[in-house]
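Person: I keep going back and forth on a fold encoding question. Show me how you would write down a chain together with its backbone fold. Please set it down just below, with no commentary around it:
Helper:
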Amino acid sequence: MCTGGCAKCLGGTLIPLTVFGVLANILLFFPGGKVVENNEHLSQEVWFFGGILGNGILMLFPALVFLGLKNNDCCGCCGNESCGKRFAMFTSTIFAVIGFLGAGYSFVISAVSISKGPKCLMENSTWGYPFHEGDYLTNKDSWSRCQKPENVVPWNLTLFSILLVIGGIQMILCAIQVVNGLLGTLCGDCQCCGCCGGDGPV
């Protein structure tokens, strides 16, 4: 597969992951599927917008750039047919790094939240974090320490796990595009400016 086609494939994969990440983050504002009475009762990590910012906004631009590389007009740059395409591929590596950092941000936030556990109404009638260093992950009985919101533990655990997985996949895809973009910068694209059909490789 040529570098432009590979980038388009990566971009097409990133788009649905971006949407799922944003949706997962939005659902975190409704623990247990319910509206909270006080926003201060939400876990701190929810307000870091890992899914909306990291998996979403910072990933949307790279995804769109990757999708557009396949049809990029690479001809006529400074009299060099391959110049435009090579520059576009180099630019894509910059966006890929931005996307990698965004996905990494969401990944770290999700990992911290999973280890920390959700904020909830504890047995002493105060709001806080009753779990420590992920001890609740192997002890489902301890979930009863959270009295409200109902089902907040599985809710947060599921959604942050989804964000964790999405972030990991996005990081891998962006890393692939960094390599692919550098190859495209150095070697050009095999379908650029009449290649595979007339003028030879660029």
The CA atoms of residues 107 and 165 lie 8 Å apart. The two ends are 15 Å apart (CA to CA). The chain has one domain: 3-187.
